[in-house]
Amino acid sequence: MKKSLVFFCFAFYFLGESSLFLQAQKDNSKVIGPEQCVMCHKREGKVWKRTHHYKTFSQLHRRGRSKTIAQNLGMKGSFKRKGLCRNCHYTVRGENNKAIYGISCESCHGPARDWVSLHSRRDIPKEERDKLVDKAGMLRPDRIYHVAENCYQCHSIPNEKLVNVGGHPHSSRGFNLMTWSQGEIRHNFLSGEGRNRKITQAEKRIFFVVGAGLEFEYGLRGFAKATKKANYSLKMSRKIRVSRKKLIRMYKASGIREIRSMYTSVKSLKIKLNNEAAFLRAADKVKQVIIDFSFGYTGNEKKLAKLDALMNGELDEISLSPEKASLYKRIGGAKAVETAVKIFYGKVLKDERVQHFFKGVDIDRQIEKQKAFLTLVFGGPSYYEGKDLREAHKHLVVQGLNDGHVDVVLELLGETLEELGVAKSDIEEVMKISRPMRKYILNK
C-alpha cells in the first residue's frame, strides 16, 4: 500500500470449536518467543494475554471437540507435540519444535531472531530500515496481504483427511478478515499514539477487498487437495462459488479492475477433483493480483468508496466481532439459542399474520439454519453457510413480505426471549442488532 496501515498482529480470534491447520513451514530455530516483544510492547502484550490465542496453550487439549478429532484420526499423545495441531495452535521454538505459547507475535509477523533488533533502530532511516527487516523476514503491518496470508493458512483447512475423517470444520467458523481484526486481538497502540485505535474507513476498504480475495484464493487452495466427493470437497467448492459471487458484486459496485482480475484470471478452471496443480496455479494468479491491489491503493480512492454500502451491509447483516461474545454468553449460549429458536418458530407457525410465509418449508432444516445464523449474529462459535439476507428473503418479498411482517417477527422474538428470562437490556441489544437487517430482508 502507499501508506502504512496499522501495527497489529493479524493472528485472529481463536474459536475453541474450530481447530486450525498447518501454516506454511517456518524456521522455528529463529523464533525468539513473545517475551522479548512484550518488553517493549507492554500494552500490546496485555491485550494478547486476554485473547483466545493466548489461552489456547492451556485450553486446547482439554476441549472435548479437540479430543474427538484426535480420536477420529487415531492420534495419541500431546497435541503440543503433534505437527498437525502444533503448527497452527501454538508458537513453536527451536530445532526440537517445542510449543512454548499459544498463537503469538511471530505467528503473524514471522520468526524474529534476524529482525527484532533492526525493526526498532531509529538511527536508520525508515525506508532503509524497512528494506532491511523485509530481507530479514519480518512481515511488516503495511504488507497487509503477507500478514493476512498467515491467518488464512490456518483459518482455512487444506487437509481432506482432517475434515472428512477427523470431523474438523473446513474453515474457522465465521472467519472474516475485517471484523475479526478489530475484535479482541486489536492492538493498534503505536499508530494510535498510545490509544488502541480502530482502523479508519479507508483502511477498512483495503481489508474488505484483501479479505474477499484471500477467501477466494484459499477456496482454490483448499479444493486443490480434494480427491473424492465428500464433505471436504463439497464445502471447498461452495467456498469458491460464494467468494467468487462476492467478488463479482464488489466489481459491479466499484469498477476496480483488480477485483475483476481476481475472478476472471481463473475463468477457464473447472471444478474437478484430483486437479491439484491447476488449482494451485490459479490460486497463485489470484494471490499476485491481491498483492498488487494491496500495494496500489490507499483506501481513499473514489472507486473504493463505492464499496462502502456493500461493506457496511455485510457488517450489518452478520456482525462477527468477538466482542459480541458476551451477549451470546449472557443469553445462555448454545442451549438457550436452540431453545429460543424452537419456541420462536412455534409462535411464528401459529401467528396468522406471518404463518403463510412458511407454508411448505422444512421447519427442522429452517431451525438448524436459524440457530447457526443467530449464534453468529450474537457472537457465538457458529459457521453460518446460508444465503445472505437479500437472497434468502427475495422470494418472500415477491409474496408480499413488508415492514409490518418484520415487526411481527421481531415482536415474537422479543416475547420468546422474555419468556426464557433473558434480561430486558439483553433483549434490547438483540433488537438493536436485528433492526439494521430489515433493509436487507426487504431488499430496500
Write structural notes for this entry.
By secondary structure, the protein is mostly helical. The protein has two domains: 28-314, no CATH class; 322-441, Globins (Globin-like, Orthogonal Bundle). It contains 23 helices and two strands. Strands 1-2 form a two-stranded antiparallel ribbon. Helix 8 (144-155) crosses helix 11 and helix 21 (403-419) runs antiparallel to helix 22 (424-434). The chain is globular. The relative contact order is 0.10. Residues 1-24 and 316-325 have low confidence and may be disordered.
What is the gyration radius calculated from CA atoms? Answer: 23 Å
Count of separate structural domains: 2
Number of strands: 2
What is the tally of helical segments? 23
The percent of residues in helical segments reads: 55-70%
Strand content: under 5%
Structural class: mainly alpha
Backbone shape: globular
Termini separation comes to 35 Å
Topology as a string of helices (H) and strands (E): HHHHHEEHHHHHHHHHHHHHHHHHH
What is the arithmetic mean of pLDDT? Answer: 84
| Biggest sheet features | 2 strands, antiparallel
Strand order of the largest sheet: 1-2
Spans of at least 5 consecutive residues whose pLDDT stays below 50 are 1-24, 316-325
